Structures are given as C-alpha cells and as structure tokens.
Fold this protein.
Amino acid sequence: MATVDDFRRSELVAGIVSSINRHATREARFMEFCGGHTVAILKNGIRQLLPPTIILTSGPGCPVCVTDNADLDKAIALAKLPDLILVSFGDMLRVPGSCSSLQEVRAAGNDVRIVYSPLDALELARTNPQKSVVFLAVGFETTAPGVAASVLQAKQEGLKNYYILSLHKLCPPITKVLLDSGEINLQGLICPGHVSAIIGSEPWQFIAGDYGIPCVVSGFEPLDILQCVDMLTQQVAREEAKVEIAYKRGVTPQGNQTAIKIMEQVFQPAPANWRGVGEVADSGLALRPEFKDFDAELNFDFDPGPTKTQKGCICGDILRGVKTPQECKLFRKVCTPVSPVGPCMVSSEGSCAAYYHYGEDNER
Amino acid sequence: MPPIITTGKTMRDKVLLAHGSGGKLAHEIVRNSFVSALDNPILNPLDDSAIISAKGRLAFTTDSYVVQPIFFPGGDIGRLAICGTVNDLSMVGAKPLYLSLSFIIEEGLLIKDLERVVASIKETAEESGVKIVTGDTKVVNRGSADRLFINTAGVGIIPPKVDISGHNAQPGDAVIINGTIGDHGIAVLSQREGLGFATKLESDCSPLNGLVAEMLEASNAMRCLRDPTRGGLASTLNELAEQSRVSIRIEEDRIPVREEVAGACEMLGLDPLHVANEGKLVAVVEAKDAEAVVARMKKNKYGRDAAIIGEVREEHPGRVVMKTRLGTSRIVDMLVGEPLPRIC
C-alpha cells in the first residue's frame, strides 16, 4: 500500500517541476478552489518550486469560511435554547458571528459539543432522549452524504429529537458565480479532490466547455498538486481546455453514485448565503419536504438578531480570490489565530490561517 | 500486577467522599493504597512535612496531570505524573531526587483503578530512581473532577558546572531529538470517544533522567534541553528560538516520525510537529559534540532513534524554519489552541 511518504518523494518532484518549467512559457493564474489545497501549497512551500509565470490564487473552498454571519447567528441562537445540545465540527466553535461565537456561548453554560462525524451527533440524540440534538451541518458535497445518512438513520429509528441546521454548500454553482463576476481572470482551476471524490469530475465540465478554462482535479499531497499544476500548464501551452484528473486513486468522472443518491434522496438544491458573495440560487442544500421533521429551522423558535459584519475584515474578498491575506490591514496585526477577526483566520483550511502559520509572506 | 491491599482491612471497591475527609477512611486509603506501595524511610513517618537533606543547587518544579482517559496505550496518568516531573527536573540538568504526590479524586473512582495507578507510580519512580516523600489526597463530589487528577512536585540537584537553559542556544549549535515525535498525542487521541481509529501505537511516556545524565557525560557543551510535551516539537523550538534570540532551521526528512503517526495526522488534519510527546527531549549542543552525543543517546533505550534534526542560526531571531522534503522551506509556527480535526 502506498504510504504518505510515497507522495512526498523529492526525486519525483524534480521531474514534475522541470516539466512545469518547460511548459510555462506564458503567464497563467490558477485558482485552487479548496482550502485543503491552500494549506498543502503553503505548508509544502510549493510556490517556491514554480516559475514566476505561474500564479496560484486561493478560492472559496473552506466551508467554515464561507458560512455567512447570518447563518452562524442562527446556530448561536439555537445553542442558547434550553434542553438543546448543539453539535458541531470543531472549527466552527471559534468563528466569530455578529456578536458572539459558539465557543463563548458554550462558556456561558450552554451545551455545545464537538464531534467528528454526524453519526456521533445521532448517537448523542439516542443517549439524550430528553433533549433536542441539533447538528450544525456545515460543509460541501463531501460532508453532505454523511449528514444525509444520519437523517435517514434517524428516520428509520424513529428518533424524534434529532435535527440538522443545513448550511451545506455546493461547489460548482459558486465557481460559476465567481467566473461570471468578471473579478478574476483565471487560466486554470485546481478542482477540489474530496468534493470531486463524491460528485466526480463531470460537474466541472461546464467550466472547460463554457468558459474555456482548463480544469484538473487534484489530491492533497505535494506530488498530487505539482502534477495538477503540470497538467494545467500543459493545457495552457497547448491552448486546450478540458477536465482531467490528477487524483485517480480517489476520483472518477462519475463520482460516488451511492453517496450522490443518498444526498439527493434527503436534500434538494436551495439558495445559500455565501460570505463575501451573498445569496446564490441552487448553491445550497435544504431537506426535502418529507424530512421536514428533522429541519431545525422549521422546528424551533429562535431569534438570531440583526446581522453585523466585522469591520475591516476582507475575508469575503479573499474567498472570491480577489485579494490575498497579506492585502488585509488586519492580517497579523489585529487578526491572528489567537484573536481571529474573520473565519479565514480560524479555520484549519482558511487562507489567512495558512498564510499566517506557514509564512509565505515572509522573506526567508 | 500484585494487589496492594493487605488483609484484614475494610476497603470498599469505590472511593467515597469520606476517603478524603481526614478521618478513618482517609487513613485507610493512605496506608493501604499509598504508603504500602510507595514505602521509603522519608515517607513512612507520615509527619506533616518530609524532611530531606540536600547539598548543592536545587531545581524545583511542579505540574498537574489531567489526562483523559487515565489509562492509555503505553501508560497511564500515574506514569505520566512521575515522568513529567522527573523530565522537567532533567531539562535543567538536575538529577531528580524527591517528588510529592497529590491526588484529587472524583468520588466513585474504583479502588482497583486507583491502585493500578499507584502501582504504575511505584514502578516509574523506581525506574527513574526517585522517592515519593510526601503526598495528599482530596476526594471531590462526582462531576467536580474527571475521575482522577494528580499533581506532583519535585526537587533535584544540579551537578556543578552544568548550565542548561532555554536562553543558551548559540548560532552554529546543533539541534537533537531523542526519537519519534507525536506518539503520545496520537496514542491518547486514538482512545478518545468518537475518534474511531485503531492503532497499535503506544505513548512514549518515559523518564528521561538516565538519558540526560549520559548526554551530560558525553558533552560539557550542552546548552539547552527541553521536553516537547503539549504543543509538540514546533512549540518547543519556537520557545528556544525566542528565549535565545536565534533562529532554528530544521530539516523535515531528518525528523523521526512513525508511519502510524504520520498517517493518523494526515487523516485528522494535524501536524506531527504540533502533537504532544511525553518521552522526548530536544537538546541544543555545541556542533562539535553533536555526533558524540547522538552516538551515546542511541545506546539508551529512550534515545535509540536519536537524530540531529537541525541547527541554530543567527538571522531572524525567534523564527523556526523547516526545509521540507521537497527542498522548499516554510515557517514552523507554535500551536494555537487545541488541534482539531478537519471537516472536509
């Protein structure tokens, strides 16, 4: 079996880098959609291996980061209800909402718990029948099938105290919005690996077809990313635009049909609020009517209060790929991982946190 | 493990609030579970203070242990409580001698679990050659503690001419680690509820005073020693760089990491550099002695995988930089908050 080390072998790196250098004859800007890629690029110093003609730009692919304050406020308001356990993935706890964070609400004595899987939330519902358990369902197509499975399981077991607050978001629709905005000029898209493991590479076809932008699905190891950049660079050199996969051990053109089916059985496309973008039609997932008993928004009376935004924070611009963390006046000065102003500094997949920790902005 | 309770006693199977009351039950638990196991002439009189004699420069340290779960692969809270304090003393070059031992017990803890912890304390104290000379027990209401908390304090004597401090690193010095990083953190995480991954990995929890004594024999140019516990190797290197106003450059492919740890970290979105250790030390030593020190360390069971992992530099004081396997470099930052697994 291949181990982690096999994807970091330095002798293989040299070959790919020399191919990139050979083909990178014109300037090209590639966006890595996914926050996991942003982290891997910075952590491994991948930019240092690329010729100056190849520019990598971070995209909106951090589910914690793109969660809008208005949605976060809903979760915070829910967490304050009596006899309710709000269950979340860890990163969400520290993200500041309009006035508070889940971490602060927990410190004030409300029941907020961290889990690693929606199935753990389901288990909490089983073992706390006298309480309502609300799972804060944040994530892309990667996590949605797992949440859908938990809802199906709850229905099958007849659990009456399990709910989800669906803040799921879909990757291809937001990519279309970013490209249509005219704010960014891309010559290639590094498509997200885990999302594509579920949806397949096919849903990216419209970007190559309609926009003429090369797309390559990448894994998360340094060699995966370099191979992806090499494939994109070659497409640019050949003036082609097609969808390719540099992550064949995880991704097929059709994706994971079982996961897609479960997701479609439980959810339907719905408008979603994206930080920095606003509401985008059909870019989110809502529970289908037959699962409305599990919808936290429909079953609880709560007031999230007025939405406020963090002054001076440019997370929205960063998520759209328009600005970089170094261009933010708060970066490193006011906004740090210890006292984050915006979500991109909190999340382990956030651009600001990645730039802060791995220091691409420093001289060496 | 031999039972510690002797015959003819009225022991219950669970710790009760009354065990911490200072009354009859309290005496029972102290005599039966603690003194009989940790027996030594300084502890045995059970006076209000232990009376010890010492000559030379004393090192004195304290730490509290709240690990959860209290039993984990490769160790338990008792072994941890001894190793932690023994190692803190060792990291200033002291020879650890005497430890205090305080328990804060949540009522309802099984006596057999307590005894298992005490047996482990005994074994680890013997291994590291320290004596438990004083102690205390408090029992708190259910919910006021999580099963068992332990505090240990310790004193040791620093040999003449030994001068070890986080402020002593100098440009050109070599940076050494005594083995694989992240074993403890991942072993403990693997036992936590909800993190359903199985691993044969064991905590590296071990007393390092023997190893340190040998390292000090091998070199009289030892500048800094520090155990990279919480916050991992990254935090320790940053502390040393900050305190000594130097930079440290390490090389990724020289840092020993077990495959299980690397794999689990990938899965959980953690960096092995940030994962806790309990049997590791970082040494900064004058470069000319580095090879000799590592050779000596490799002969000790707690230094078998010792390696030179980097060097101290002058430029950019306070910064830690790592040369990656790809030949690029990146900043190694301190850990912020609890490392939490990724969600996508």
Observations:
- Residues 1-10 of chain B have pLDDT under 50 and may be disordered.
- Residues 111-128 of chain B form the longest helix (18 residues).
- The CA atoms of residues 118 and 249 of chain B lie 42 Å apart.
- Chain B is about 30% helix and 25% strand.
